[in-house]
Design brief:
By secondary structure, the protein is mostly helical. Helix content is 60%, strand content 0%. It has one domain. The chain is built from 7 helices and no strands.
């Protein structure tokens, strides 16, 4: 699925998946967040298919080592990062673990002003994307 399809899918108002979006027009930060989450989901799919079933949507908090996406799937953030880096040899291609984790939506930029708000918005983006994935999985099984 391309990024535009992912963005369109997350904005399906009839299913209330758009709650994480600020009222008004879609801005570049929102598109960036969706792009990062889409990349993160694709990476997890390639390494650990079915990972979405391990995530408690109500607990997602990217500022927590245990409740972030990688923490919920692998036990803690560092363990998850290690698995992903090793399996995809990402460190060799990027040279920067922090940039990599942010560009896959696994971590909030801790230097950004309004870090808690950014965490809330990015966490809601993950919730919406996972909720959509789970719904699609249910439809395939039915």
């Amino acid at each position: 699925m391309g990024i535009l399809a992912a963005i369109a899918g997350l904005f399906d108002e009839s299913r209330n998946d758009h709650r994480y979006i600020s009222p008004g027009i879609l801005d570049i930060d929102q598109v960036r967040r969706i792009s990062f989450v889409h990349r993160g989901m694709s990476l997890l799919d390639s390494v650990n298919p079915g990972w979405e079933d391990m995530v408690d949507l109500g607990k997602i908090n990217l500022l927590s080592e245990k409740d972030c996406i990688l923490g919920q799937v692998y036990g803690d953030f560092a363990a998850g990062l290690g698995v992903l880096m090793k399996s995809m040899d990402l460190q060799a291609t990027t040279g920067d673990d922090l940039t990599t984790t942010m560009s896959y939506g696994f971590m909030v930029d801790r230097l950004v002003t309004g870090i808690r708000q950014e965490n809330d918005v990015l966490s809601r983006t993950w919730r919406a994307a996972i909720r959509k994935r789970l719904r699609e999985n249910e439809e395939k099984e039915a």
